[in-house]
């Protein structure tokens, strides 16, 4: 079964799913709960593939890294440290 469409769909809903959750552990649990609830007929191994795929997309997009850093402030701090 091709799980890519489900991974993309869940990733596209991440902003709503992760409201109020800022760290990776909380996000992982929220996404896993969502996948289990919305796709109950899939095997647990498929659930794991979906969750891992969504987390990879979110990490690639920087959701757990510098997502909340204002780039202008970061540039100013770099210039001030020179």
Report the average pLDDT across residues: 82
Distance between the termini: 54 Å
- Give the helix tally: 5
Total number of domains:
1
Instruction: Find the structural class using helix and strand composition.
Output: mainly alpha
Largest sheet: none
Give the overall silhouette: globular
The radius of gyration over CA amounts to 16 Å
Helix and strand element order: HHHHH
Helix content: 55-70%
Strand content: under 5%
The total beta strand count reads 0
Low-confidence stretches: 67-79
Layout of helices and strands:
Blueprint (H helix, E strand, L loop, with lengths): L3 H9 L1 H4 L6 H15 L5 H17 L10 H10 L2
Helix pairs in contact: 1-4, 3-4
Explain this structure to me?
- By secondary structure, the chain is mostly helical.
- The protein has one domain.
- The protein has five helices and no strands.
- The chain has helices at 4-12, 14-17, 24-38, 44-60, 71-80.
- Helix 3 packs across helix 4 (44-60).
- The longest helix has 17 residues, at 44-60.
- It is globular.
- The N and C termini lie far apart (54 Å).
Keywords:
globular, single chain, 82 residues, mainly alpha
Summarize the structure.
The protein is mostly helical and 82 residues long. The chain has helices at 4-12, 14-17, 24-38, 44-60, 71-80. It is globular, with a radius of gyration of 16 Å.
């Amino acid at each position: 079964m091709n799980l890519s469409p489900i991974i993309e769909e869940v990733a596209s809903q991440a902003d709503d799913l992760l409201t109020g959750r800022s760290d990776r552990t909380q996000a992982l649990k929220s996404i896993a709960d969502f996948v289990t609830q919305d796709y109950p007929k899939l095997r647990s191994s498929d659930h794991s593939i979906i969750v891992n795929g969504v987390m990879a997309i979110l990490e690639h997009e920087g959701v757990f890294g510098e997502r909340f850093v204002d780039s202008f402030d970061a540039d100013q701090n770099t210039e001030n440290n020179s």
